[in-house]
Design goal:
alpha/beta, NADH Oxidase, TIM Barrel, 5-stranded parallel β-sheet, about 40% helix, disordered N terminus
Length: about 500
């Protein structure tokens, strides 16, 4: 039954990401070979014992036992950090992290587990198995590796960069996708059940908590960050990691050099280099509810004036208008998330909210190769529960500061006057690329803004420059700005 689940899950993953190309094509090829091996020989049972694993091996540098940060400082600084720089970590850092997670502290010859470890374990049975998904570690090829703690080494079990696959299994959380490496915990409950019965399951969960806290503190001491991720589809994680039948995934902990904003450090650095100290006034045109055939008219105007905008697309529409999304992205525009089916998120269950956000990001990533770290809730509708879910998933929320009501008053002249009468440096304008009248309005709005000295940028650029970025769960803008048009002349 488990093998069948692997096969079905892996096929689902391959279908979802078949359009991403590159590493994903390699994944599909490797996956087909691996599935064939599983089906023919049930190879998963061959690697339940650490010494039976075969594959490319890296002996890790010896861990440092005399760090510069005190335990008290690490505890004081410990935070969940979900956003990571596009920067490689060293083998020394990887070694230190894995040792803190489950390394040997007191070797014991003859012990089936190699000795005592960095975490306490009921009966010294040590039911955890540690994997690391590597994408950007100096001197180590991307892949899934198993940590062999008695030898302090890692052995490759899957080739290729599997971060995007693991992110899909983890509800498309950007922390999992963007981190240079991810520690994955799996449990072998059968090590605990004979001695402790069902209570052994609880002891195992306690043990992973001990280990995860070690990793949090070690990451802080190394100048890195991490976050504990428990929201994922077990069968999908098992398929990506190629877990044996007797192992159950418990936790994912992406880690790397942390940054405060969900917007990438590369973007911040690029913008800092491009703009002078006194940059021109900026505005961001944002278009919701597409893509549609009218999106192409807006792209024509943007390209004519060498301007950029942000398109908050609805997930279930992007494949139908794939070429438009590709054109928008290739022209330097930002493709962001506007949910998958455009419901009021506040009226959805928790699981439905998660599915709306992550499914849209998955659809976008399948075309652009990039999972957006921001989304705009349909109708701007949020509450504390939706914000909490967004925080857990690692998304920033972007609303707007100026709404000309192009969705209600479909008159190009009215739309133009409302925008031009209220525009200011830092404005984020919400529009809808599903109405021809909006396209007609942009024929005047875009050149007029440029003539007045405004630089038209993506919303991520504007938020980065004018407001210092956006952290997971932060809300930029307001959803009720439209009410002013019922109260003022324009």
């Amino acid at each position: 039954m488990r093998t069948r689940c692997f096969i079905l899950t892996a096929i689902l993953l391959a279908v979802i990401f078949s359009a991403c190309g590159g590493a994903l094509e390699n994944f599909s090829e490797n996956l087909s070979e691996n599935l064939s091996t599983i089906a023919d020989s049930n190879v998963g049972t061959l690697i339940t014992q650490q010494e039976q694993i075969e594959g490319p091996t890296h002996i890790l540098p010896a861990p440092n036992l005399d760090g510069e940060m005190s335990v008290e400082q690490a505890i004081q600084q410990r935070r969940s950090r979900r956003n990571f720089e596009d920067r490689a970590i060293s083998q020394e850092q990887l070694s230190q992290i894995l040792w803190s997670v489950y390394g040997i502290t007191e070797p014991r010859p003859g012990s089936p587990r190699g000795g005592l470890r960095t975490t306490p374990s009921a009966g010294a049975l040590f039911p955890l198995e540690i994997y690391v998904v590597i994408g950007n570690v100096e001197g180590i090829e991307p892949g899934v590796y198993r940590y062999i703690s008695p030898k302090h080494k890692i052995v490759q079990v899957v080739e290729g960069d599997m971060r995007i696959m693991l992110a899909a299994a983890a509800l498309n959380q950007t922390a999992v996708r963007n981190a240079p490496a991810i520690v994955a915990y799996a449990a072998v409950f059968d090590r605990m059940l004979p001695r402790y019965g069902e209570r052994g399951i609880m002891y195992t969960h306690m043990e992973v908590g001990h280990s995860a806290q070690n990793m949090y503190l070690q990451a802080e001491a190394l100048g890195l960050g991490t976050v504990a991720v428990g929201a994922f589809v077990d069968e999908m994680v098992s398929a990506v990691l190629r877990l044996p039948d007797d192992e159950t995934p418990l936790y994912l902990m992406p880690f790397g050099y942390a940054e405060g904003s969900v917007l990438s450090a590369a973007l911040v650095e690029e913008l800092t280099e491009e703009l002078p100290e006194e940059s021109p006034p900026m505005v961001a045109l944002t278009f919701d509810d597409g893509p549609s055939t009218h999106t192409e008219g807006i792209l024509d105007i943007l390209e004519q004036y060498e301007a950029q905008a942000t398109f908050f697309v609805v997930g279930n529409r992007v494949e139908t208008h794939r070429s438009i999304v590709e054109r928008a992205a290739n022209s330097g525009n930002e493709i962001a998330n506007h949910s998958h089916t455009h419901p009021h998120l506040t009226q959805q269950t928790d699981s439905q909210v998660i599915d709306e956000i992550t499914s849209a990001s998955t659809a976008i990533a399948a075309i652009t190769g990039f999972s957006p770290p921001i989304y705009r809730p349909p109708f701007g509708s949020t509450d504390d529960r939706v914000v909490e879910i967004s925080t857990d998933l690692g998304y920033g929320i972007v609303k707007w500061t100026l709404d000309p009501l192009d969705w209600r008053d479909r008159d190009p002249d009215i739309i133009y006057r409302r925008i031009m009468s209220q525009i200011e440096d830092g404005s984020v304008i919400v529009l809808h690329d599903i109405h021809p009248t909006t396209v007609q309005a942009m024929e005047r709005v875009i050149p007029s803004l440029i003539e007045q000295g405004f630089k038209l940028v993506t919303v991520s650029e504007l938020i980065t420059h004018r407001y210092g970025g956006l952290e997971a769960g932060d809300i930029f803008g307001s959803y009720c700005a439209w009410r002013i048009w019922d109260e003022v002349e324009y």
